[in-house]
Amino acid sequence: MEVRRLSLAEGARAAEGTAVIIDVFRAFTCEPLMFYCGARRILLEGDPDACRAYRKLEPDAVLVGEINEVPIEGFDLTNSPSFILACGPALFEGRTVVHRTTSGVAGALAALERCDEVLLASFVNARATTEYLRRRGPRVVSIVAMGIRSMEKAPEDEACGDCLESLLSDPAPARSYDHVAAMAEILSHETAQKFLRGDKPYLPREDPVFCLQRDLFDFALRAERHGAQVEAMRVQP
Q: Which residues contact 34 (CB under 8 A, 6 or more apart)?
């Protein structure tokens, strides 16, 4: 298995083989959590207007997303793990979610244009993702850290890439991934500090706490194209 490390929007467009699209803060931390809260389906959509239009087809659909971190008018919820937890099954049970984000969802849609398979990853499903990859055994794995608005590297996404690469290494690397050291770097960076300051209600302080937990879920996520729609599917290692 050849593991390639890529970053940002250009990395998603250049990915080959099986792509692993990483968005720790917050898209691919949110998606496993929405399934945990009972969502029936999660659709990936880059166009906010198309998200709103979907509700005409399925009036009960839940719209979740942001544009450059700012909540989208007409959506039910912004892209926040703590808000998702607060709503819980009362909002998500048995419903379709249409998910729009600036980095993770956009990266997954770009990678689908040329990759054999696209997985959606963060710390909360890191081990399940690598176990799935080991079982599938693709020749090329492109790990893509989406970063800040897909334009600037973010320590949490790069660290998650390090974690995945370490778990995929065979034999194990001499110096394995150190999550404590990674958290020290992440928490001191602006990508976490903008939450921890608590000065914007749509960036709650609690989000980094949840996003930096490892292996909370035992399933990987795979983006699949079904006709005109792209759906995030749970897959077991």
A: 42, 64, 84, 92, 97, 99
Domain ranges of the chain: 2-235
Would the pLDDT of 130 be above 60?
yes
Among 33, 13, 62, 75, CA closest to 202: 75
Dihedral sign (CA 89, 94, 100, 106): positive
- Whether pTM > 0.85 for this model: the answer is yes
Q: Which CATH architecture group holds 2-235?
A: Alpha-Beta Complex (3.90)
Name the H helices within 197-237: 206-211
Confidence tier at 1 by pLDDT (50, 70, 90): very high
Q: By three-state DSSP, how is residue 98 classified?
A: strand
Asked if residues 144 and 20 have their Cβ atoms less than 8 Å apart, the reply is: yes
- Residue listed under structure tokens 């290692």: 237
Residue 30 CA to residue 84 CA, distance in Å, equals 7
Contact 213, 123 (CB under 8 A): yes
**For range 46-72, the mean pLDDT:** 96
Spell out where 8-127 has E strands: 18-22, 41-44, 62-67, 70-71, 96-100, 117-121
Q: How far apart (Å, rounded) are the C-alpha atoms in residues 193 and 188? A: 7
48 — pLDDT class (breaks 50, 70, 90): very high
Alpha-carbon separation of residue 199 from 40, 181, 210 (angstroms): 34, 27, 19
109 pLDDT higher than 90: yes
Burial of 3 (0-12, 13-18, 19+ CB in 10 A): middle
